[in-house]
Each structure stands twice: as C-alpha cells, then as structure tokens.
Amino acid sequence: MTEEIWKPVVHPDFGQHYEVSDHGRVRRTTRGIKGPAKPGHILWQRTVASGHKRVLLCNSPARKHFFVHTLVLTAFGGPKPEGTECCHNDNNPANNIPGNLRWGTPSSNRLDRPNRGVKIRGELNRNSKLNADAARAIRADTRLSKAIAADFGISPSTVQRIRRGQIWAHL
C-alpha cells in the first residue's frame, strides 16, 4: 500500500480545519471547540441510501455535510466545472480514490451506466411498487386498466405503459 497523500479540503469555511486523502478519508487538522475532534482525527463516514459516503465538517458556528467523493475530486482534480457532477468510473459510490473520480455532465454519467453494467430498471429501482411477476401479470390481464391499477396500487397510466412496453420492457 502506498503512503497516503493528504491535501486541504477546498472550501473557504473548512479548508484550514480539514484534509482529504487519496485513500478517500477525511481528517481534522485543528482542535475542535468541543468533543474528541483532535488534530489528526479521522472522520466517520456515513453511507447514504445511494451508497455514497458523507461527512459532517464543523467550524463553529458553521456545520455542513459533504459527499466524500466531491471533497476528494476537488482537492485532487481541481474545482468543479459549471454544469458537472462527480462521477465514479467503476460505478462504486464507496470507491473515492482520485483515479476513480472525474467531473462529467449528469447526462454523461447516466449514459455511462449501461457501459459499466448498471441498469436500474424494474425491481432495482428503489421506487418500484411492482416486481417482475406483477408486471407479467399486468401485461397478461385483459381487464380495464382502472381495475388492474386498483388491484396493484398503481395508476391506470402505469398499467398502460407496461402493456405498451414503455416500462418493464426488459421482461
């Protein structure tokens, strides 16, 4: 394992108090006003629902949550260009090493997903109310869309989109 390289966080309120490493870690460089935040203290990273890591930076009275991938890319790759977002090359939101991160447009990030083997559809979509068996049953059902929708707790337009193959088309 190579020696960890640390750089200051690029933010006017927090840069003098925190550093980020090329291993995707964040540490405090100055003593906090309260609590165990001593210089060199590695911050705990919370994993959010999307799988991304987040930290809370404090500089009394300012407190703000930051995504670790954004802190790493800003420190090691430069400032965020207008209209871009931080993209993970391997689609692993927990892999926050500089070589895995790049600035890209939101549309380019979405278009990259199939190339990386990621297809968020059907049951993989966390907002989905249906599973594959339910979608097949809806497609085979000959009743009116309104009746089917009531049975599955979805809208009649969703039933129609399933029947036309606009959604759940991969089945």
Write up what this structure looks like.
- This protein is α+β, with helices and mostly antiparallel strands and 171 residues long.
- 27% of the residues lie in helices and 19% in strands.
- The protein is built from five helices and eight strands, in the order ββββββαββαααα.
- It has helices at residues 68-77, 106-115, 132-140, 145-152, 156-164; strands at residues 6-8, 18-21, 26-28, 46-47, 53-59, 62-67, 85-88, 101-104.
- The chain has a three-stranded antiparallel beta sheet, covered by helices on one side. Strands 4-5-6 form a three-stranded antiparallel beta sheet.
- Helix 4 crosses helix 5.
- The chain is elongated.
- The mean pLDDT is 86.
Q: Can you count the helices? A: 5
- Strand order within the widest beta sheet: 1-2-3
Rounded to an integer in angstroms, the radius of gyration calculated over CA atoms is: 22 Å
End-to-end CA span: 45 Å
User: Looking at the structure, what is the overall shape?
Assistant: elongated
- Number of strand segments: 8
Give the class from helix and strand content and strand pairing. alpha+beta
* pLDDT averaged residue by residue: 86
Residue share in β-strands: 15-25%
List the helices and strands and how they pair.
Layout: E1 6-8, E2 18-21, E3 26-28, E4 46-47, E5 53-59, E6 62-67, H1 68-77, E7 85-88, E8 101-104, H2 106-115, H3 132-140, H4 145-152, H5 156-164
Antiparallel strand pairs: 1-2, 2-3, 4-5, 5-6, 7-8
